[in-house]
Amino acid sequence: MDLHGFYTGEVFDAYQHLGAHIWGGGTAFRTFAPAAGRVALIGQFSNWQEVPMDRDGAFWSCYVEGAGAGMMYKYRIYDRQGGFVDHCDPYGFGMELRPSCASIIRDLHAYRFSDGEWMSARTDCKNGPLNIYEVHFGSFRKPGPAADAWYSYEELIPILIPYLKENGYNYVEVMPLTEHPCDQSWGYQVTGFFSPTARYGTMDQLKAFVDACHQNGIGVLMDFVPVHFAVDGYALARWAGHTIVPIRGSLVPLESEDPCCARLQGLSLRNVELRVRDDRGRTAFREQGELLFTHFGLSGPLVLSASAHMDFTKSKYTAHIDLKPALDAQKLDARLLRDFQERANQDYANALGGLVPRSMVPVLAERTGVPSATKGHDIRREQRRRLLETLKDFAIALSGPRPVEEAVVTSGGVAVGEVDPRTMESKKVKGLFFAGELLDVDGYTGGFNLQIAWSTGYCAGLAAAGRAATI
User: Do residues 206 and 153 touch, judged by C-beta distance below 8 A?
Assistant: First the structure.
């Protein structure tokens, strides 16, 4: 393999060297893991016991007699502290159906094509008609109503090809077929770059589909998205030795078991102050703005912003709402005293109507222990003090964030301490750059963290271009 071309990104035949290649009576395994302390191979052929791999610079390899087509395997990547992760082969040619993720040895040369006539007559269509049909194999036709009911590559031959011919298409563009963990991504979050997804069958079955298309005068275009890889424990960043901070919602609503939230659901409070304290009394967030009570807890701009500063795996949190942040305790007490004097013969609940939304009055009455029917002239100093404290500190215990699907953005990804903030280059692997949502960053930058994506992408692009110019 041309190593200079590999490192500069000028050659594209690394798959012919890396991965699992059947040879002789066994299989040669090779992988690229520059930051690993050591690498071992595990698989069915060794009863999933470690087979040591030899190091040659950034590459690791071994040969296993008796390892053949159809057998599953993984690489065990050790960091320099002795920890390890069992990882699929990024250059593997087959993989288990998700959620399993073992790579599978495939014979690249077993299938024999019969499309010589079409291949010899193939043109670039610059001087002839070109009509392309784009298709997603998982949704074009389904054998049943289940979400994971799919036709195989071969089963699609008598279904899709007649449709293409009937409608005059001479090319079909297939949406990504590289292996991916999430069905909903439609193939745009890749973990197996050279492995046709097991959702629809094997490599040879995909070859049979392509062969049949060619024999029917239809060319095949395949989408390939190498820059959209999954940010999870068995994807490329961790393979390179990086720490992956678990993905969690950021800018996300918060749940509470306090029954007052459900009683007040739909109530929006403006110009209040939210302070969030952890179970050690430390302030995690403090800001003024708007929040919303919901049936599950709290939401709204203030709460979404606060959630970015909270980690429920490490601490418990309580929300403290100052309903009257513009008034200090002395001024608020004077306001309460005046309101009760002006409404001396009215119920306590009516007297509070000018201070808080009416839907909050019953809740305040319960928290202060002052019956709603108490007349203004009967309110004692101690009761007024409890009311003041509640208005300045309406506390709600928080139980956790809403599901990550409800988050505006996510946090988690490659630990930023392992990335040079000036260039976005990995501190572990020279020439490896990170940007955008791949990093453990989040901020008040709108949907998808676009400002972060653009800024880090710009830094990474400049640095990568500069590095390439010096090679």
Answer: yes
Return the structure tokens found at 305.
């912003």
Residues 6 or more apart in contact with residue 156 via CB below 8 angstroms? 137, 140, 141, 200, 209
Pair of tokens at residue 462: 């400049």
Encode 39-89 in three state secondary structure. EEEEEHHHCCCCEECEEECCEEEEEEECCCCCCEEEEEEECCCCCEEEECC
Q: How far apart are CA 42 and CA 67, in angstroms?
A: 11
The helix-helix angle for 361-368 and 381-392 (nearest 10°) equals 120
**Tens digit of each residue's pLDDT (9 = 90 or more) over 302-345:** 999 999 899 998 999 999 999 999 999 999 999 988 888 888 88
What is the distance between the alpha carbons of residues 108 and 146, in angstroms, rounded to a whole number?
A: 32
DSSP for 132-192 reads EEEE-TTTSS-SSSSTT----TTTTHHHHHHHHHHTT-SEEEE---EE-S-GGGTT-SBSE
CATH class of this structure's domain 3-104: mainly beta
Q: Are 215 and 251 in contact (CB under 8 A)?
A: no
How far is the C-alpha of 137 from the C-alpha of 89, rounded, in Å?
24
Q: Which residues pair with 318 in a beta bridge?
A: 277, 397
Identical fold for domains 3-104 and 116-222, yes or no, is: no
Q: Which two tokens stand for residue 57?
A: 């610079």
Q: Strand, coil or helix: what is 374?
A: coil
What lies within 8 Å, CB to CB, of 133 at 6+ separation is 164, 167, 169, 171, 172, 173
Strands 38-43 and 51-52 turn out to be: antiparallel
Give the pLDDT confidence of 207-253 residue by residue, as tens digits. 999 999 999 999 999 998 876 655 454 356 666 778 888 777 888 99
Q: Which two tokens stand for residue 343?
A: 């409404």
- Given a contact cutoff of 8 angstroms between Cβ atoms, the answer to whether 98 and 181 are in contact is yes
Q: What are the structural domain ranges in the chain?
A: 3-104, 116-222, 242-248+411-470, 252-406
By three-state DSSP, how is residue 392 classified?
Answer: helix
Comparing 69-73, 319-323, 410-414, 467-471, the range with the smallest average pLDDT is 467-471
Class of domain 116-222 (CATH, top level): alpha beta
* pTM (2 d.p.): 0.61
DSSP per residue, 265-320: TT-EEEEEEEEEEETTS-EEEEEEEEEEE-SSEEESHHHHHHHTT--TTT--EEEE
The secondary element (H helix, E strand) that includes residue 329 is: helix 329-342
Closest alpha carbon to 232 in 198, 262, 190? 190
For residue 311 the two structure tokens come to 């980690």
